[in-house]
Design a protein that fits this description.
The chain contains 12 helices and 14 strands. By secondary structure, it is an alpha+beta fold. It is rod-shaped, with a radius of gyration of 55 Å. Bound molecules: adenosine-5'-diphosphate. Adenosine-5'-diphosphate binds next to helix 10 and helix 12.
């Protein structure tokens, strides 16, 4: 089904309003023209009845003066056939009249309007009974007929006795009415056309917006709405458009993030199960072998197998601990425990812990620390974890004779920490990925209990929670250097 368009609805509504207005206006024009015509007619003939009674002695000696009446009726017939003259007795009964006898249907006229007329203050047009057409009262003129000084009845002149014209006849008969109706109708048509154009213009952007939103929805919320040239400081439609544009951008981003998170979660589960299975299988393998060959193995062999099993058990528990750590860092409820502390001391403490291991590997662990560095503000436990992971890697990936150097540089806003080594470095192709979970440069997951590719991911996540990025530089064969910055504590 084709959706309804707003401009069409508005146009229909406007057409309806204009049609109703037009019809009401025509009806009002015709009605008031008719009233005006009657009023003018009655005003012009205000004294007609008076003149007649003065000129014609219509009642003499208590009886109708037939000769005078006939002469009057004949004259009127010639001069103005639109009027009908009736001679009434004091109760309003018809004594004589000019109309054809068969056409007169009343024998008596209501005297109330006649008295109002004679009172002189009536609002015009004032209508009274038309004896020929009792259903349609007409404007009239009236006067008292005197007989030798006393009131003997009334002369009642019905104006427009031939019937006022019907509305259509009025319109067709009057050039002025035709003209004004034509001009009015034309005006309404022009208003309608202007309205249609205006609606089309106003709703154009709304239609565009609706189409964009529709296609955004049909495209699975992937490509956000783009509206070229819409202004943030424009009218309501412009602002609505900009808001929709931004919202769609956000929806698209979030859906993309959800997709990525979902893919990452799936990868992670695959990796976790793989990484857990490998050491577990080895552990199981060594223990089972031991059980089977318990009798044939020498004490030394038994010890070697137990050591191997223990190493895999260690690797397993370390992996589980790291996974747990990452999960904790990821959960939205993680609250960092920010406090001011001396980074210098922390780095020295951590370096101390690794001294022995470095020595055992034949490496120099060098620290380059300024004497009076200010305090930083961070979660000390988590930063210690970052340092441990970085130093551990540096030692792990640097051969004997090399050097691991820890450098602190105090700046205006913070202290930057750098952990650099002279080891094998990281190939450029891997540099972008080493902070990803389970990413390892050495792809083969051998039995070597080296690590699961979570150390850097944990460091990265911790620094992300501190809103400070970690950077890595490396030239293969010339070592790697990791740098991050922590803000100074406000003292
Ligand atoms: P792993 O537990 O395997 O060391 P990490 O997340 O700590 O996992 O490191 C990811 C990968 O980055 C490692 O597999 C390693 O190849 C590389 N890497 C990390 N630190 C260094 C370094 N200092 N020198 C060379 N390679 C490094």
């Amino acid at each position: 089904m084709r959706p309804r368009r707003l401009s069409v609805k508005l146009t229909l509504a406007l057409t309806f309003i204009l049609a109703v207005t037009g019809i009401a206006w025509i009806a009002l024009t015709l009605f008031s023209t008719r009233l005006y015509q009657e009023e003018v007619d009655q005003r012009l003939n205000r004294d007609l009845a008076n003149y007649i009674t003065q000129a014609y002695p219509l009642i003499e000696n208590g009886a109708v003066n037939q000769a005078a009446a006939t002469s009057l009726f004949d004259k009127l017939m010639v001069i103005n056939p639109r009027i009908e003259v009736y001679l009434l007795d004091p109760e309003g009964r018809l004594l004589s009249y000019s109309a054809e006898p068969g056409k007169v249907k009343l024998d008596r006229v209501d005297l109330a309007p006649v008295r109002a007329w004679l009172g002189g203050n009536a609002t015009l047009p004032l209508r009274g009974d038309d004896p020929r057409d009792p259903q349609a009262p007409k404007p009239f003129s009236a006067a008292t007929v005197h007989d030798g000084g006393t009131a003997a009845g009334y002369l009642y002149v019905v104006l427009g006795g031939e019937e006022y014209q019907s509305a259509t006849a009025m319109v067709f008969g009057s050039h002025i009415l035709r003209l004004s109706l034509g001009v009015g109708g034309g005006g309404l048509l022009i208003a309608l056309a202007a309205g249609v154009l205006l609606f089309a213009w106003l709703t154009r952007r709304l239609s565009l917006l609706t189409e964009s939103v529709d296609s955004f929805r049909e495209g699975d919320f992937q490509s956000p709405v783009l509206l070229a040239g819409w202004r943030r400081d424009g009218d309501e439609i412009d602002r609505l458009g900009i808001a929709v544009e931004e919202m769609s951008q956000r929806i698209a981003d979030q859906i993309e993030q959800l997709r990525q998170a979902d893919a990452a979660r799936r990868d992670m589960i695959a990796n976790i199960s793989h990484d857990l299975r490998t050491p577990l299988a080895s552990l199981q393998g060594y223990l089972e072998t031991l059980l089977i060959k318990e009798d044939s193995f020498s004490a030394e062999e038994k010890r070697e197998y137990l050591q191997l099993a223990a190493r895999h058990g260690e690797r397993l528990s370390r992996l589980i601990a790291e996974l747990f750590e990452l999960t904790m860092l990821d959960s939205t409820g993680t609250r960092l425990d920010f406090e001011p502390f001396s980074l210098t001391e922390l780095v020295q403490d951590v370096a101390q812990k690794f001294n022995l291991e470095a020595e055992r590997k034949g490496l120099a662990l060098v620290t380059e620390i300024p004497g009076d560095a200010p305090f930083v503000r961070a979660d000390i436990g988590l930063i210690e974890r970052v340092l441990e992971n970085l130093i551990e890697n540096a030692i792990k990936y640097t051969p004997a004779g090399g050097e691991v150097r820890l450098t602190l540089v105090a700046g205006k806003d913070g202290i930057s920490t750098r952990v650099a080594d002279t080891g094998r470095g990281i190939p450029p192709a891997d540099l972008d990925h080493i902070f990803e979970r389970f990413y390892r440069v050495e792809k083969a997951r051998g039995d070597a209990p080296e690590g699961a590719g979570l150390g850097l991911a944990i460091a990265h996540r911790i620094l992300q929670l501190h809103e400070s990025p970690i950077e890595v530089e490396s030239a293969p064969g010339h070592g790697a250097a990791f740098t991050f910055s922590l803000p100074l504590a406000q003292m």
